[in-house]
């Protein structure tokens, strides 16, 4: 292909850009000439930037969940100030508005599904625990090394492609084929080997620091057991079991009080992953794995099963609630209590204890001793149900008992086939399990 | 015996006459062919067909993921899509494209008349094709986890014990295992064929040292495929023994090991990725030097000369 001289291109481009700007000003579609593209791209990029900053502002106000774009706020924004910003670029960015409309329509439709309430966003780039810090720093180092290689290699590639491209004055003969150069071959063998060795040593150092850490006295011991599709947490020596929401004490940087988690699986492979606290570690049946965290600040840290484990793997969410030592002890004291027994919900309790519920669920202090599903002794002390799939509210609990597939299709909880009255009674009973 | 008449008759039927055959005969010719070029083209066509199918599966997944809490496909269907997409791209796209180029180019580049085992070559292609057909037949013939859906839904790595009867009833996992087993036989056959061709059928004077880099890469990749597909094929057989004959290789409930499946799978998976990157870089290496312009004076002065 012949390439026109640069000055010609530049002139043509200027003319076309002027024309395109004219068209844009009158809100018409631009001519579609190729040289219009730089201007189009510039405007497109500006639109994307505005859209992103708009989304970011909305997002900062607080979303519905970390898996969920802030649905309500986003809809408000589009009918309010946000849409004005977008209209300015309607001609060049019309497709973006269309895209956003599709997104919003879809999101509004999707928002009818139950969603947990939490603003936290999990990110490996905001670590809050020693293992996560080590991994974060390692990833920055690897990114720097590979980024440098990327820039060098692609600069050379671009240089070679441009410098040695086919030109009009070329005679079409096969170029001189240069074979072999000991210097070059040595260089591109030895340097990559050195880079790999450096990366290996850096990774080995982090692995050693995390895997072989010594635990000070006062370490909290927890056993986490993965199930399809929820988490069981045992606090050995404390005499209680809980599910899905892991409570751990905050750790001081000077006097660390880490939490050591033994990882087991009841069925298939799972993986315990809370990005801000530590790397992933698999829970493998017939095998004992372990990991540790020492969160430096209190708050809720969300995570997710990170090893495909079956139909509802996607909604096998987990949250780690990091508390001050006092709050943690208070929580422990409450968890050790047997379940509340209020006379006002005797009917619901009777239904619960005389149906299949007890085959899978435990409520301490009653005849419900099932092990297959989550322990419900202190169900209402948890913020979510169905392993983080829905907020723990009366409506969601009711829906969950009536039709689990409405919240988490493919979960192993069966629909209980109760009458509405019975469901109301059982829900009322569950609501007393603080 | 040779008279002037028979000498003047062409011994070789030119291709222009072949095209005048009826459609049935032409299709039949492609089906029964043992010609390395035809098989190479068929491998490439097979790879491109599944590239399109795998791409469509990926598109559906991206639509599902475009917005949060989307209900475009069910969780079950999504799991089937990523399982089939992964399996398709690695075994039904990566492998045939690798073998397609090798089949077409290697005999030409080393001066061989055909591959070392032409019939094995045809058999391997049709085994691979059969594997793909078995895998995709699962969409109408299989049963997924919890009896729902059809295609395999255990992930393209199919970690045990999710593939055990207890967690994956129905036949979708069997389609996955048998499909890969059968196409694995094909891959082993072709890999063996390419290595043998390169080692034994080079024209006189072409030592291994003088062999084009492209052929070298093909031979190395084929050797790698030969080494890494065999454990996977063995693992598929072990999985089928677990599922049908009450074996306990990967049955963690009975003392089996889930980790050993991971080893079996990734001894294939990691080299396979290397193969794919070799395949692409090798093609680039063919393209770049020959299309480079001929201004040797443009070679930078610091570039070492032999």
List keywords for this structure.
heterodimer; A: alpha+beta; 5-stranded mixed beta sheet; 12 strands; elongated; disordered N terminus; B: 306 residues; mainly alpha; Cytochrome C Oxidase, Chain A; 9 helices; 67% helix
What do these coordinates show?
The complex is a heterodimer of chains A (434) and B (306). Residues 1-37, 54-98 and 100-119 of chain A have low confidence and may be disordered. In chain A, a hairpin with a 7-residue loop joins strand 6 and strand 7. Helix content of chain A is 45%, strand content 14%. Chain A has a five-stranded mixed beta sheet with strand order 3-2-1-5-8. Chain A has a five-stranded mixed beta sheet with strand order 4-10-9-6-7. A two-stranded antiparallel sheet of chain A has the order 11-12. Chain A is elongated. With 434 residues, chain A is an alpha+beta fold. Chain A is built from 13 helices and twelve strands. With 306 residues, chain B is mostly helical. Chain B has one domain: Cytochrome C Oxidase, Chain A (Up-down Bundle), CATH 1.20.210.10. In chain B, 67% of the residues lie in helices and 0% in strands. Chain B has helices at residues 4-8, 15-18, 23-32, 36-66, 75-110, 118-141, 172-200, 213-244, 258-291. Chain B is globular, with a radius of gyration of 23 Å. Classes of the chains: A alpha+beta (434), B mainly alpha (306). Chains A and B meet through helix 5 of A and helix 5 and helix 9 of B.
């Amino acid at each position: 292909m012949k390439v026109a001289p640069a000055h010609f291109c530049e002139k043509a481009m200027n003319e076309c850009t002027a024309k395109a700007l004219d068209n844009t000003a009158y809100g018409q579609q631009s001519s579609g000439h190729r040289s219009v593209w730089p201007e189009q791209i510039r405007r497109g990029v500006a639109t994307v930037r505005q859209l992103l900053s708009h989304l970011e502002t909305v997002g900062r106000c607080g979303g519905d969940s970390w898996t969920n774009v802030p649905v309500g706020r986003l809809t408000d924004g589009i009918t309010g100030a946000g849409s004005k910003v977008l209209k300015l670029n309607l001609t060049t960015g019309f497709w973006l508005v269309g895209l956003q409309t599709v997104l919003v329509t879809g999101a509004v439709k999707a928002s009818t599904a139950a969603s947990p309430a939490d603003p936290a966003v999990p990110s490996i780039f905001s670590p809050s625990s020693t293992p996560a810090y080590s991994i974060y720093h390692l990833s920055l180092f690897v990114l720097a090394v590979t980024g440098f290689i990327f820039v060098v290699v692609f600069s050379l590639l671009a240089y070679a492609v441009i410098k040695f491209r086919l030109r009009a004055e070329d005679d079409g003969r096969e170029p001189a084929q240069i074979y072999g150069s000991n210097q070059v071959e040595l260089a591109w063998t030895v340097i990559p080997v050195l880079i790999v060795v450096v990366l290996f040593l850096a990774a080995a150092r982090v692995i050693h620091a995390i895997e072989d850490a010594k635990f000070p006295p006062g370490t909290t011991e927890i056993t986490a057991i993965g199930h399809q599709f929820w988490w069981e947490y045992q606090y050995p020596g404390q005499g209680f079991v809980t599910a899905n929401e892991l409570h751990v004490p905050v750790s001081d940087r000077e006097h660390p009080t880490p939490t050591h988690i033994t990882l087991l699986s009841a069925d298939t492979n799972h993986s315990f992953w809370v990005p801000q606290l530590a790397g992933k570690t698999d829970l493998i049946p017939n095998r004992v794995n372990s990991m540790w965290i020492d969160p430096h600040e209190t708050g809720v840290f969300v995570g997710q099963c990170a090893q495909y484990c079956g139909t509802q793997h996607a909604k096998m969410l987990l949250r780690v609630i990091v508390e001050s030592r006092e709050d943690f002890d208070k929580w422990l004291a409450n968890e050790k209590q047997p379940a509340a027994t209020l006379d006002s919900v005797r009917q619901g309790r009777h239904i619960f204890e005389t149906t299949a519920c007890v085959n899978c669920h435990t409520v301490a202090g009653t005849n419900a001793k099932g092990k297959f599903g989550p322990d419900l002794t202190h169900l209402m002390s948890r913020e979510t149900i169905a392993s983080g799939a829905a907020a723990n509210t009366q409506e969601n609990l009711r829906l969950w008992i009536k039709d689990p597939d409405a919240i988490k299709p493919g979960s192993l909880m069966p629909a209980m086939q109760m009458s509405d009255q019975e469901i109301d009674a059982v829900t009322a009973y569950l609501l007393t399990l603080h | 015996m040779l008279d002037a008449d028979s000498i003047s008759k062409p011994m070789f039927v030119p291709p222009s006459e072949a095209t005048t055959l009826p459609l049935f005969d032409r299709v039949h010719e492609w089906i029964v062919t043992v010609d390395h070029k035809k098989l190479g083209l068929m491998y490439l066509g097979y790879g491109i067909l599944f590239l399109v199918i795998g791409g469509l599966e990926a598109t559906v997944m991206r639509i599902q993921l475009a917005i949060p809490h989307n209900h475009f496909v069910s969780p079950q269907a999504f799991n089937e899509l990523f399982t089939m997409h992964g399996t398709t791209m690695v075994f039904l796209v990566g492998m045939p494209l690798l073998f397609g180029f090798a089949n077409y180019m290697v005999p030409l580049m080393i001066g061989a008349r055909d591959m070392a085992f032409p019939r094995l070559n045809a058999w391997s292609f049709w085994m691979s094709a059969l594997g793909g057909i078995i895998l995709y037949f699962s969409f109408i013939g299989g049963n997924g986890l919890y009896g729902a859906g059809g295609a395999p839904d255990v992930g393209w790595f199919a970690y045990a014990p999710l593939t055990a009867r207890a967690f994956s009833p129905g036949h979708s996992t069997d389609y996955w295992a048998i499909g890969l087993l059968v196409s694995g036989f094909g891959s082993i056959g072709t890999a063996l064929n390419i290595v043998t061709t390169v080692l034994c059928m080079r024209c006189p004077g072409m030592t291994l040292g003088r062999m084009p880099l492209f052929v070298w890469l093909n031979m190395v990749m084929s050797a790698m495929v030969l080494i890494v597909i065999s454990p996977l094929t063995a693992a598929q057989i072990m999985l089928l023994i677990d599922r049908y004959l009450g074996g306990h290789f990967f049955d963690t409930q009975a003392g089996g090991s889930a980790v050993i499946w991971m080893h079996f799978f990734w001894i294939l998976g990691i080299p396979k990725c290397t193969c794919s990157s070799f395949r692409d870089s090798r093609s680039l290496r063919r393209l770049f030097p020959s299309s480079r312009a001929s201004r040797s004076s443009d070679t930078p002065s610091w570039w070492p000369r032999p």
